[in-house]
Amino acid sequence: MKMETYYCTAVLLILSLSSSITVSNGELSSGSNTGGSVSLWNRVSKYNPVKKSKSEDDIRKVVIGIDGGTESIRACLFDAVDGRIVGKSFAVPYKTNHPKPGWAEQNPEDWYTNLGQAVRGAMASVSLPSDDDTHDTDNQQQQQEQPRVEVCAICVDTTCCSVVALDDTFQPLRPSLLWMDARSSTQTTEILHKCRGDPALRVNCDGHGPISAEWMTPKALWIKQNEPQVWNKATHICEYQDYINHRLTGVMCASSCNAAARWHWDGQLCVTTNTQTQQTQPYPGRPISLYETLGMPELADKLPTKCIPMGSLVGQLTADAARHLGLTQGLPIVQGGPDAFVGMIGLGCIYPQQLCLITGSSHLHCVITAKPTTAAGSWGAYKGAPLLTTNFAEGGQSSTGSILRWAKHIFGGSTGNGEPSTSNHHLDYKQLDNEASNIPPGSDGLVALETFQGSRTPITDPLARGALIGLTLSHTRGHIWRALMEAVCFGTRNCVDGLAAAGHECSEIIMAGGITRSDLWLQMHADVTGKPILLCENSDAPLLGCAILASVGVGIHDSVEDAVRSMVRTSRRVKPRTNEAKVYDLLYRNVYSRISPAITPIFHAIADLRGGGDLANQGELKTCL
Question: What is the spatial distance between Cα 238 and Cα 215, in angstroms, rounded to a whole number?
Fold first, then answer.
């Protein structure tokens, strides 16, 4: 039913997602997409400003997006209709502890404490001037032009699988096992060994694995096996996402996106609330057989029994939470989810054959797919994620931007020709890009492998390493820089091809993150993959994704589709160049794709030599080589 009005008070509205998307037998179809995939470029606003949304009394309706990241928690206000930022975002950092190598912990209380500071800081950026500003004419005029705002809703995204153990009063029993905590690597091997063939493991490369130590099940198993006193006292095992929502509303519930993508749950069945179904199956969509095989069936009771999809109402802001945030009691809190996957919404990546590429130190590739099929070489597809009516599969590269950062550090003390530098000026990325831009595709016969920190997909190999092949004395710093850039792009194509081989093809790539600041690297990604690259006006995708979900949750927009059309704006489209794409296709098929299989045995043979290794076994090493 189309809504003619929307509410920004304590009225709670639960809306269905777009009526133009349907699910039948686990397959997704879109009534608006009768001619195949339609580009985001044609679905959303491009450049043109959207008319500001103001009510008759000149109060601007806003929603608050909150991003609970690895290093800090941020809050930002957005126009509830057009998605434009209102004021400024405000971040408050928190501490991460590393009690042992590979361990990473945070104090859940820090999340909540800093959340209050972040929201108050974001609200202050649109507040009236202080007494100190009374004589500042320019500031007074600026403040007068700043409209008053009315907060309609809040939505939170957080790091995924930052696991919390709570007692029966919802107090933490230990620090959180942060998403990057790898202490449960032994448990991942145990799960694959004991539970091979369990349907729940199909999302892990069709059951072949690996299972990441970041995920919920291995972390829960580690707590049970290594901290039985915590396990026995833990009434609730949940995530950062669930903990914060409970602190805000008093409601304990899981996000179906987290559950589908990292808990081995069925993201569509787990939201079932039908009374008759619960009588025969009290935990719909949960991998009960997996828990039983692992000897921890009680995990089903400890995890949140309520699970709701992103964009649904969690509850209302309690009186205590309202005082903490400086907001009004009863404000609707809308369900979010994992930061990266909420970021897919913020980039408008919600239609089949769209691939969201999040770039930074590593690459994450998430493609919306019509069928929740699984296959070796890809993770997923996750059913009912990121939205209830969608499925997505993912691939990844462990080291991408981090490689160039490493190279920049190595190159810092020399000129482009390798001579010692007599200048004290700071070497920046643009200078290196300029040197690489003067070199043709293929870097004059210099080829690199980007797997400095192992390979994620389509081949999972933690022992894989990087390589430079074809070096000559004529190669310069610019050649090496370009070869490393090309290697990352070849690795991206390898992941995209792996997803396509698993039945998850893409027609366009929506990109966000550090790479978007390099025109050379951006164009190179388009040329190597053969796919158009789209950039969005607001690249802070997780915060905007929260704003979109919040606006849908309280009825400002009728569906996520409607919200994306109004709130996501593309700013640029980079097309593959015909000649360069042909050259890169030949290099990819005839050179890059042959390197890794050829030298993988060598990588494995030298794996133990890191840091000097055990040179006493050189004889065995030579045999391996």
Answer: 12
